[in-house]
Write a structure and sequence with these properties.
Number of strands: 23
Distance between the termini: 9 Å
Strand content: 25-35%
Oligomer: single chain
Largest sheet: 8 strands, mixed
Mean pLDDT: 86
Strand order of the largest sheet: 8-7-9-10-23-22-20-17
Number of helices: 12
Low-confidence stretches: none
Length: 521
């Protein structure tokens, strides 16, 4: 019996030693090679095809200098390694047009002085050293040099979104300057001044210019046109100038709805004019259906309440801001996104569906439409009471069209050249006129808006980068029967299965031990 145990120990020790040696050799080989295999979700550890396209189109060499203080513990040591690996991938993809250096500024006072001149600060980082939490000063910056121009990332805070940020800086540095987006005014449409958050978000990439479509054509340098919330019937000349801009092949975004939220007065909505949306069907082939979409799969809001003389705040599901997870995965605009919110949206439909027309966003199957006006958007009304007796089905919230388009007009209405059709037009229609409002630009809505404007401007290079590194993974709601089933499985069935397997394993080992004992007698 003693000999058997000794043999088992030797075999186990030999196997363990062999595995350790092989693991060490594989690790050493991997450290010295450039072979990589990305198993991460959404390929977050590899540079995308869009980045490779930007790098391979470089006309002149570009130099990247990464200034990282050496000797920082985790997670900053891991961040430094990630940046170095990423820059190595950039260098390989650029095929000789990109070089990089990893520099420790602490070694050279002149380097630190140069960074101060570039207004690159030392940042405070909290580290654990000698079993104590300490605060150290460190550099975590990147400087990109191209010809006589520079772009700076003063602080690399995380690896999430790093590729998008770096490629965006390179594209800005090597590109032809900002593009122009026109914002239609008149008939209740919001001007660029009313979309301040949008302007701040896009100030590095786009210039915004207001245009009164009733009196003027869209500027020729504009790459896209935004019509944000027309709440009155627009004039024929307004419609004509929009139509002719669309016929040039440039993109048009129309935000349409049956209400306009009035958040300054609490949770209230103001109905738009009865005929405000009729032109969308005749000109763009989009029908804005009556009513207001409600979805039990809703975003959460904070509501102030007063009861018995006390004021308190509570978080409630607000069905008029649907948490939309039914996104068109085939479209570059929504590909990679997990969920977005669509505040106070009207249901949409194509007048005549076709292959070049698609649905981008739909609410969940637990959706309904509240008829009106007036509309009751009281957030404290119970969900069951609000949806009682209503027909539940998904509602369309955003539409897209790309390809051949025909003008809605048969002749010119001004002294400009009339265009009857276009082969590469782009159109987006949203059922939420509040989508670009300052209060609702946040989270994945920001990514959606940026993707929309890039797509309308025929500039999709950065779209796929924004959605790398999923920030949300919303769970699909379960009905009562499904919830009961999973409760039974996890509470009773799974423990019973584990106990059964444990009992079988115990009996098997006992039988084998007895058999071994009998053989050695």
């Amino acid at each position: 019996m003693a000999d058997l145990r000794s043999t088992i120990r030797r075999k186990t020790l030999f196997t363990l030693s062999f595995v350790v040696v092989i693991a060490v050799l594989l690790f050493a080989a991997a450290q010295g090679s450039h072979i990589r295999s990305d198993w991460s979700d959404n390929q977050t550890s590899s540079i995308s095809a869009s980045t490779k396209q930007v790098l391979q189109s470089l006309d002149e060499p570009i130099q990247i200098k990464a200034y990282f203080t050496a000797g920082l513990p985790q997670p900053y040591g891991q961040l430094k390694q990630f940046v170095e690996d990423t820059l190595m991938n950039y260098r390989d993809a650029a095929k000789g047009k990109l070089g990089f250096e990893m520099i420790n500024p602490e070694d050279n006072p002149n380097t630190q002085a140069a960074l101060q001149a570039l207004q690159i600060p030392k940042v405070q980082v909290q580290v654990i050293e000698d079993d104590r939490a300490q605060v150290r000063q460190a550099y975590l910056a990147i400087v990109i040099e191209y010809l006589d121009k520079q772009e700076i990332i003063p602080v690399v805070q995380t690896d999430a979104g790093f590729e998008y940020l770096l490629t965006r800086k390179i594209k800005k540095l090597t590109g032809k300057g900002k593009q122009t987006i026109a914002v239609a005014t008149g008939f209740g449409a919001k001007s660029s001044q009313q979309l301040q958050t949008l302007q701040q978000l896009l100030q590095d990439d786009y210039n915004f210019v207001d245009v009164d479509l009733a009196a003027h054509v869209v500027p020729s340098d504009a790459k896209a046109l935004i019509v944000a919330g027309v709440d009155k019937k627009p004039s024929e000349m307004f419609r004509y100038h929009l139509d002719q801009f669309r016929m040039t092949g440039n993109g048009v975004l129309v935000l349409a709805s049956n209400v306009e939220p009035n958040l300054q007065a609490g949770f209230q909505v103001l109905p738009v004019d009865t005929y405000a949306n009729d032109w969308l069907l005749s000109d763009l082939g989009v029908s804005v259906e009556p009513g207001l979409v409600m979805d039990q799969q809703a975003s959460r809001i904070t509501v102030n309440q007063q009861q018995a003389g006390f004021a308190f705040r509570s978080v409630v599901d607000f069905p008029f801001i649907p948490n939309v997870v039914n996104l068109n995965k085939q479209s570059v605009i929504t590909q990679g996104l997990e969920s977005v919110s669509m505040p106070f949206a009207a249901p949409l439909a194509w007048g005549e569906p076709s292959a070049d027309k698609s649905i981008l966003l739909q609410s969940s199957e637990w959706s309904a439409v509240q008829s009106g006006p007036p509309f009751d958007v009281n957030p404290l009304l119970a969900m069951q009471e609000r949806f009682h007796g209503l027909h539940m089905r998904p509602q369309t919230l955003m539409l897209a069209q790309e390809g051949k388009m025909q003008s809605a007009f048969t002749k010119a209405l001004d002294d400009k050249t009339y265009i009857a059709k276009v082969a590469n037009g782009r159109l987006l229609v949203s059922g939420s006129s509040a989508l670009l409002d300052n209060e609702f630009i946040n989270g994945e809505n920001t990514v959606l808006i940026l993707n929309m404007l890039d797509w309308l401007s025929h500039d999709e290079a950065l779209i796929t980068l924004r959605s790398k590194g999923v920030t949300q993974r919303p769970l699909e709601p379960l009905n009562k029967a499904e919830r009961t089933f999973f409760k039974v499985v996890w509470v009773f069935a799974l423990p019973a299965l584990l106990l059964t397997l444990a009992g079988w394993r115990w009996l098997y080992l006992r039988k084998r031990r007895n058999k071994t004992w009998e053989e050695n007698q």
